[in-house]
Structure formats: C-alpha cells, structure tokens
Amino acid sequence: MYRVDTFITTEKELASYERRMSICLQSNGFSFSVTSTSGLLLTFGEVTVDLAQPMSALIADIKSFFAAHHIYPVEFKSMRLVLDSGCYVWIPDALYDAAQNRRYLETVARIPASSMVLSAAHPLLGARLVYAADATLTTSFKVALPGIDCCIRPFALLGKDLLQRAAHHPVIVAHLLSDPLRGSAAIDYLVLRDGGLTLSTHRTVNGGRQMLYTSLSVMKQMQVETDDMEFLLCGAVERELFMQLRGYFPRLDLYNGAPHRALNPQLARLHTYRHAAILA
Fold first, then answer.
1. Is 271 inside any structural domain?
2. Which residues contact 209 (CB under 8 A, 6 or more apart)?
3. Angle at CA 69, nearest 5°, toward 64 and 70?
4. pLDDT tens, 187-223?
C-alpha cells in the first residue's frame, strides 16, 4: 500500500508534447513533478511506499497511485526517474564504448550485487554517466511507467541554468540526501567552472563540521577560492546547517533547480531547493 503525503496540482491543460514528468526516489518512497517545456510547474507530489516490498507489489502500488490521480505515461513528452547511487563515473562521448560499462565502474568502485549497470548520455556535456542502480527499483518503475528514462541525482542537477552560471565564476553544488546534523549523510558534490563540469563526487559526512571540512577539501582539490565561487545547497538543507556554513562561504545560497513559474499559490510556496533534482 502507499500513502499520499502531498499532492498539489493546477487545472491548466497542456498538450502531451508540452508536459514532462520527473520522479525522484526517497528513502521511504518518491516525490515527483509535472512541468511544462516552458518552465511552468503544474503538479507536485510526495508518496510514501515500501520500496523494499516484492517487485510485483511495488509495481502495483506505482500503477495504482498514478492511475488514481489520472496520470498516464502517454500524457508526457518525456518522463525521467532520478535514482540514488554513489557508484558512478563520467566517460567522454569520444571514449565511450557501451560494451565496457561494467569495466568502467569496476575501476572506480565496487558494484553492489543487487545493482544493475546503466548509462545516460548528457546532452549538454558531451559525456556519458555510467552508474550502478538498484535493479528491483529500476525495473519496477520501468515496468509501471513504460518509456521512462533513468539517471541519478548528479546527472539530473546538471541543467543549462548551472552551466550558464559556471561560465562566469566557479560554482559548487552540494545535494544533501539527509541532514548531517542528525547523523551520517550522503552528499553529491558538483564543481563547475568555465561553463563545464570539472568534478563530480559522492561523499559521506557526519556533522556540520565534517561537512565544512569536506567542502573545503573539495574546493582545495579543484583550486577554487571561497571568495570567487558560488556555493549552492539543495536537498535536505536545514536552517541550522545553512547558518553554520554561511560564516565560511560568502556566496552561499540555496539552489532551487531551473527557473520555473507556478500558477497555483501552493506550488509557489514549495521549498523547491529540497526537490531541485526533479526541477533542474
């Protein structure tokens, strides 16, 4: 069974070729958004569902939720599932060979036994992201929503907006999967400069001080000065952590994904930085 925690939508009707849906897996379910190709936020939802249940039951829950809210795959120009993975590597298009996907990953990380190896071509970077993702979750959503594309958070966050910012000054993005002040937290770091991606890494921290040191270490590795770069936070960012980091990073801000508009007042009030991966 599933539970709908949040469901906000607008009555505006658009043709299927103008609508996109993005789904992001959470520890206890998933969130999703429906946006127009022109940047209008139409629908947002959060659903609690047991991701550890048998595949047949998970597929049934996914289908049941979307059918109950009259959301069907044929209604969209594109659908994207944003998966969680800390096991990935970027390969330039010119060097990429699909037959070598598993070997690419094995050179940088141990591939979990329950995972499948996938790849996604990034249209703005001229590179492919090869990654490992949970096989059951990936297959369940692919069966429930035929035609859906898959990627992971670093890929989803790298939109035109961030690359344009990085053309003028270095940009570091930190996506938090949970609050470091409340225990161990995984963070996806992206470092962009000169309009391109220079570093993409997955780190685990415990506490605000360790996140500070890790962030400074990433900057030092890329020879970026704190005064020169824009540091953007998204995901599970709480005020206490933000204020702690603010004293060390003059250009600290929240990242809300790609610029968008919302006709519904409830959609306009969303803390979109928490859901940047489905709005980028």
1. no
2. none
3. 95
4. 999 999 999 999 999 999 998 889 999 999 988 888 8
CB atoms within 10 A of CB 249: 20
User: Where in the sequence is the domain holding 105, given as residue range(s)?
Assistant: 1-159
In angstroms, the first-to-last Cα distance of the chain is 30
Residue 197: beta bridge partners? 192
C-alpha to C-alpha distance for 279 and 33, rounded to whole angstroms = 7
* Contacts (Cβ under 8 Å, ≥6 apart) of 56: none
Give the chain's largest Cα–Cα span: 52
Are residues 16 and 150 both part of a single domain? yes
Number of domains in the chain: 2
- DSSP-derived secondary structure letter, 237: -
Separation CA 274–CA 272 (nearest Å): 5
DSSP label of 120: E
CA 250 to chain centre: 25
For residue 81, being part of any structural domain is answered with yes
* pTM to 2 decimal places: 0.92
